[in-house]
Amino acid sequence: MLRAALAVLPKERVWQAMCWLDSRGEEPDTTDAPELAGFLLRRWMRTRIAQLAGAGRLLLDRQDGTEQLAALRLPLHFAYGSDEMVWAPADLAAAAARTGAHRTVVAGAGHSPNVSHPQELTDGLTGFWEWTNAPAGVSTGP
Hints:
Elements: H1 2-8, H2 11-23, H3 34-46, H4 49-60, H5 66-71, E1 77-81, H6 89-99, E2 102-106, H7 113-116, H8 118-132
Parallel strand pairs: 1-2
């Protein structure tokens, strides 16, 4: 739906429609703080339509890549909000388990914990990076 809308409507109108769709499950009279709403709108407007359409195409054609991730033999980390609404949190937890990845689940965050809960996400990522860079034999587990 997003790709089709972007092909025929101005980005501003698509943004308004997405905001309306996103708000349908919220409590009445809840809105993002003005600075957050402004940031999200600026980010949307500065993103090229080709990138948005390309991302949509990738999501529609997505394959399960957990096997390829696990084959990388690198420390992996999944970070997401407990209230994620695009990807099922149970599916993300299962993918992390299949790849042996560490996880940061940001309580109360939705699809963009970097926007809604930046400190909690930063703490989780920092803990993971410190753990991956700890000297051998030192356990600082995330």
